[in-house]
């Protein structure tokens, strides 16, 4: 929603028998807040982090967004804590294995939320969902009738 922060949760799972450190990066750090953005997962455990998108003044055209997140993870020694994490742990220069996972941002309008849309030069509130056309209503009626028989 415009002029409102939006949040979602992402769950990371460590299926291994080792301690794993993670770090979350984004292509738009001023637009998103990630908490926690670093951490250590014990073996066979999981953690949730929250991504909060700052309030936006306008929608991008067609809700298309090129923002991405990169989740990096690497095996760390037993007993490593969040305070022990450094950016050098995620450097591939040392020849260590860093696993990268990229996530693309997908924007959606919340259901039943008004979206401002210009119509003939005048801003008019319109529903965020598409209104069905008469053709769609006829098809939907036929589908329902076919299922009842």
Automatic annotation (TrEMBL):
What highest taxon heads this organism's lineage? Eukaryota
Family matches, as SUPFAM superfamilies = PapD-like
Q: What is this protein called?
A: Major sperm protein (MSP) domain
Which family is this sequence assigned to?
Answer: Belongs to the VAMP-associated protein (VAP) (TC 9.B.17) family.
| InterPro entries noted in UniProt | Ig-like_fold (IPR013783), MSP_dom (IPR000535), PapD-like_sf (IPR008962), VAP (IPR016763)
- Stretches assigned to the MSP domain: 1-108
**Annotated Gene Ontology cellular component terms:** endoplasmic reticulum membrane; plasma membrane
* Gene Ontology annotations of biological process type: endoplasmic reticulum membrane organization; endoplasmic reticulum-plasma membrane tethering
């Amino acid at each position: 929603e415009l002029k409102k922060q939006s949040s979602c949760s992402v769950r990371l799972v460590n299926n291994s028998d080792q301690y794993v450190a993670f770090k979350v990066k984004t292509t738009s750090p001023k637009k998103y807040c990630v908490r926690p953005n670093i951490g250590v997962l014990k073996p066979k455990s999981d953690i949730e982090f929250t991504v909060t998108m700052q309030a936006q003044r306008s929608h991008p055209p067609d809700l298309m967004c090129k923002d991405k997140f990169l989740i990096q993870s690497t095996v760390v020694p037993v007993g490593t804590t969040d305070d022990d994490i450094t950016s050098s742990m995620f450097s591939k220069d040392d020849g260590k294995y860093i696993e990268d996972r990229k996530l693309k941002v997908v924007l959606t309008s919340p259901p039943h939320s008004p979206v401002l849309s210009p119509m003939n030069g005048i801003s008019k509130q319109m529903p965020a969902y598409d209104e069905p056309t008469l053709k769609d209503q006829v098809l939907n009626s036929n589908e329902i009738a076919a299922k009842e028989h």
